[in-house]
Amino acid sequence: MKYVICVNSNDYAASLEVRNLYKCLPDEDAVQHGQLRVIDESGEDYLYPASHFVAVELPADVEKTIAGVA
After folding, report:
1. With bands split at pLDDT 50, 70 and 90, how would you rate the model's confidence at 70?
2. What are the C-alpha distances in Å from 25 to residues 39, 41, 51, 54?
3. Is the four-CA dihedral 5, 67, 45, 58 of positive or negative sign?
């Protein structure tokens, strides 16, 4: 699972919050079009401009905690 931080929520204020961490799902077609498939505030995955996010790498124990895996 890849994680991203939102750095720009212009045009998506209801769905994205700046400085929030989001799960990003693999979608090669989206990447080729400059987009990312992100699970947003609604809990659903949607395509957003990749420029609205910065990818982050989290330590494995933090990823497990976020994912709810004990």
Report:
1. low
2. 8, 15, 16, 14
3. positive
Residue with tokens 């931080």: 5
Assign 3 a pLDDT band (cuts: 50, 70, 90). very high
Amino acid at 7: V
Task: Return the structure tokens found at 29.
Answer: 């077609």
Say how far apart CA 67 and CA 61 lie, in whole Å.
10
Q: How far apart are CA 61 and CA 47, in angstroms?
A: 28
Q: Which two tokens stand for residue 30?
A: 């989206």
